[in-house]
Amino acid sequence: MKFEVTILGSSSATPIHNRNPSAQALNINEKLYLIDCGEGTQQQMLKFDVKASRIEHIFISHLHGDHYLGLVGLLSSLHLNGRKKPINLYCPELLKEIIDIQLKSSETELQYEVAYRFTDSGKAEVILENQDIIVETIPLDHGMRCTGFLFSEKKRLRKLIKEKIDEYNIPVEYYTALKKGADYVASDGRVFKNETLTTDSATPKSYVYCSDTLYNEQYFDQISNATLLYHEATFLNNMLDRANETHHTTALQAGQIALKTHAKRLLIGHFSARYKTLNELLDEARSVFPDTELAVEGKTFSIE
Amino acid sequence: MKFEVTILGSSSATPIHNRNPSAQALNINEKLYLIDCGEGTQQQMLKFDVKASRIEHIFISHLHGDHYLGLVGLLSSLHLNGRKKPINLYCPELLKEIIDIQLKSSETELQYEVAYRFTDSGKAEVILENQDIIVETIPLDHGMRCTGFLFSEKKRLRKLIKEKIDEYNIPVEYYTALKKGADYVASDGRVFKNETLTTDSATPKSYVYCSDTLYNEQYFDQISNATLLYHEATFLNNMLDRANETHHTTALQAGQIALKTHAKRLLIGHFSARYKTLNELLDEARSVFPDTELAVEGKTFSIE
Predict the structure, then answer these.
(1) I need a labelling partner for B45 at 20 to 30 A (CA). Which of A156, B18, B39, B137 fits?
(2) Backbone angles phi, psi at B159, to 5 degrees
């Protein structure tokens, strides 16, 4: 199953040429999920050939402009381009009011439904489950209502060991039960333990999106063992005071979080405009967690 | 006096790669005036080195997203960059509500004042007058509240004819009155007519911004004799029905308007995303009004 993320924006609130504010497109089994939608996200999609029409779910972490100001434009464009399929929007409740007043003021009545699911930054919740994934909110510590998102592949069924199935001549109608973990009881009463007939499926993969937040251990348990952890790293650690003051994380802290939560790989982003180049941020995170990459515009990372 | 316009966006509502929605920066005597502010305008300013911090006045024609969705991001960035000087915002009244709810939801209290002047699309009004210019609204026909803007240089004082001033030995304290058009009465009672002592100053230049609108003669008188006329030209004339239906203008009509209103030069913009290249639009406008240019991103046009 395809499971990858394309970065559409890597900057924090103050604009900088050649970087865009937060937005990421997840492709999970050829379905598109958009995480955050800063100003200009539509243009970034055009640039990197991410088909907006294929988006089914949009997740907005919080209501700082650099995480959602591109949304009304995107919704309007989908309407202008004839969309009829609903969009599922997971966001703080106030965003509905912001969208509604702007649609009203432009005399736009969308031809498709926006199905809202409001997030609650007070607790982790499953907000979406389909045949491919489960999505949970991650309560973050940003001095305002803010949630990250945890995308976990669903646990697959166990795999039959073909030779054993043949050897014991197990009828096909038992296969599903075996895949789900049941033992096999033969007609003569003999019991075959499930683990002798099947093997476990691969460990489900997960993508964790943590932006924006102060370093705070409250969410570490929930994000542990991420296949790919995206964590904001707005500042270098020599600006730790500024990071604390603005409820952000440093690159060093992002590395430490990846290490403590046993992430397999780390992506850092949400860079302050003061950093014209990003090497120092990358080096700092790698000093504690070597398997780190920069979440820069146009790059696609496979979650595996 | 410098009087020039830099194009920041040339597209209409549906997004297209490498074009941005409407925004233009006017430099009048080294003061910056922003006209419309589509999504991504901040990025365009960075790209074309238009200093956002120098903007004093912002004019929003109407509340279709492609004309204002970049504004909240711009206002927020000015705040983050420490602006203290007020911004003057000329716009439909509903925009204040749209801005307020977004500032509130991001818990932002701007450090500078936004001084609103609400436009009324029902009548032409002077909305700004300073030492350099007079700005009037132009009621347009867009099926919703929409105004264009007419920027006219202020009429300069008359110029003294130095040889006559010397010949008649006119005292310096009379110069200002002469420049304002008064006759000179000498101490012996002789009257010297003003037109023998001064010449008229240059005709004031004007920049006209007409977007978005149906071809409608109602605004032709007001925009006549523009030094530079910017007029939307969303479609080719073979899509006249579509233009009428959506309250837009064709390139041919834009040329006809320039001709009828005796514009000196014409700029066309607000191009539909269906036109991947713009030559046909340019050729069509030029077929009736040869002195036409494309208002494309990054180009600066002198108003002279």
Answers:
(1) B137
(2) -100, 135
d(CA A101, CA A79) in angstroms, rounded, equals 16
Across chain A, which has 304 residues, the per-10-residue mean pLDDT values are 96 94 97 98 97 97 98 97 97 98 96 98 96 97 97 93 93 93 92 94 94 97 98 98 98 98 98 97 98 98 96
Q: Can you give the pTM of this predicted structure? A: 0.92
- Report pLDDT for A278: 98
* Assigned token pair, B42: 């901040």
Tell me the chain A residues in contact with residue B64 when contact means C-beta distances shorter than 8 Å. Answer: 106
Q: How far is B146 from chain A (nearest CA, A)?
A: 11
Kindly list the residues of chain A whose beta carbon comes within 8 Å of any beta carbon in chain B.
13-17, 20, 39-40, 42-43, 46-47, 63-66, 69-70, 72-73, 76-77, 80-81, 92, 94-95, 97-98, 101-102, 105-107, 144
Minimal CA separation from B95 to chain A, in Å? 8
Q: Give the side-chain half-sphere CA count within 13 A for B262.
A: 4
- What number of H helices and E strands is found in chain A? 10, 18
pLDDT digits (tens, 9 = 90+) for B36-82: 999 999 999 999 999 999 999 999 999 999 999 999 999 999 999 99
Q: Which residues in B lie closer than 8 A to residue A101 (C-beta atoms)?
A: 94, 97-98, 101
Q: Do A102 and B13 touch (CB under 8 A)?
A: no
Q: A246 to chain B, minimum CA–CA distance in Å?
A: 12
B34 — phi, psi (to 5°)? -100, 130
Pick the closest to residue A287 from A240, A249, A236, A220 (CA basis). A236
pLDDT digits (tens, 9 = 90+) for A230-274: 999 999 999 999 999 999 999 999 999 999 999 999 999 999 999
Q: Do residues A205 and A150 lie in contact, with contact meaning Cβ atoms separated by under 8 Å?
A: no
CB contacts < 8 A (A, B):
95
Residue B51 makes CB contacts below 8 A (sequence gap 6+) with B32, B45
